Amino acid sequence: MKTEIISVGTELLMGYVVDTNAGRIARELLTLGLGTYYQQTVGDNPDRLRDALELASKRSDIIILTGGLGPTQDDITKQVAADVLGDELVLDEKQLDIIKGVFKKRGTEPDEKVYREALTFKHGQTLLNEAGLACGSAYVRETNKETKQHILLLPGVPYEMAHMLKNKVKPYLQEIIQDEGVIESLFMNFNGIGESKVATLLNDKIENQTNPTIAMYAKPRHITIRLTASAKDAETAARMNQKAAEEIQEILSKHFIGYGEDQTIETYVVDRLKKKNLTLSILEGFTSGLVMSSLTRVAGVSAVFEGGLVSLNDKMTESQLGLEDLSDASAADAAKMTAEQCAETFQTAIGLSVTAEITPNTSGQLLSGTGYIAVFIKGKPVKMKQFPLPEKPQAVLRDLLKNEALAFLKDTVN
């Protein structure tokens, strides 16, 4: 079945708002085995939205629109969709109750325009919005083809859209495709290996894939492999995915950091520290706190991360960590010293030091140099890694060094 996503909102076209909804919808559809063939972005203009919807109607089996369901005059998605589909809009009583309940808690009365958010297709299905005010809608349309066409309207507010996508839309779509069996996806995550290397190691499996299928997605120092199995039931599909995953893990075991679409190197590191009952402190120079910032986004990190220091000069580092003559040491020795002293100062089992020697090019716009990463674990020699930083903008180099530091920390605590 061909799927198409239409994002509605002039603010998207103007660049004031980044469209994260379309990407999220497309990724979630893949977990059901549904591919997104087309994406459109259209402003709050009735004629252009009608053109977009009519174009999608000619080529796609599932059309998902996101945005334009609110109470204002430029929220036109429901009205235009109803016109194109030849249906009318009616108020959904359950969504009205949700709206009234929200305003009652606020201690205010809703404006009459707010009730527009409870409009839904008269001959369709309401997708209740428990995370906001504007309900979504689903409409089934007869076509000349064997399959029917499904038009779904979702809110544009990202967290509302995500809630409805997970709790309403995915079950709805699963019911549509259940006659063809069940489709299950399993996500595997690997760190510290490049996309081309993974493709080479898994070449035979990728070339001979049938069921499950193998898809690969690359981020800096992070590869996600999605296995998707089709079977008569969920249990069989999950078993097929797990068997394929175990075969892949045997090949890439050194780099495996866990299952799940949202698994990251940060989550893996925090989990490993928890399991080993180890605490961590960090000194950052050139990365300016990026390592600490990424780790502290992980839920439960406070159980293992005690604190750290961002310092861009030797005198500050000496003062805060109680060191002397740091500027006289080589960059590598300084990294080792600060990693050990960081653990001492913060009373942690592990001290991580991330610093760099950087030189700007003649224009001053690009930098290059060497990154220094040191990990001290009490009772063990300091582990040290030097990382060449190619000529790139400062933000890019900082991100590169952050990723290298997390990968080195992962390998050290494994």
TrEMBL record:
Entries under SMART domains matching the protein: MoCF_biosynth (SM00852)
Alphabetical list of InterPro entries matching this protein: CinA, CinA-like_C, CinA_C, CinA_KH, Competence-induced_CinA, MoaB/Mog-like_dom_sf, MoaB/Mog_dom
Boundaries of every MoaB/Mog domain copy: 4-175
Protein family according to the UniProt entry: Belongs to the CinA family.
PANTHER family registered for this protein in UniProt: NICOTINAMIDE-NUCLEOTIDE AMIDOHYDROLASE PNCC (PTHR13939), NMN AMIDOHYDROLASE-LIKE PROTEIN YFAY (PTHR13939:SF0)
HAMAP family: CinA_B
UniProt-recorded name of the protein: Putative competence-damage inducible protein
Species of the source: Alkalibacterium subtropicum
Lineage, uppermost ranks: Bacteria, Bacillati, Bacillota, Bacilli, Lactobacillales
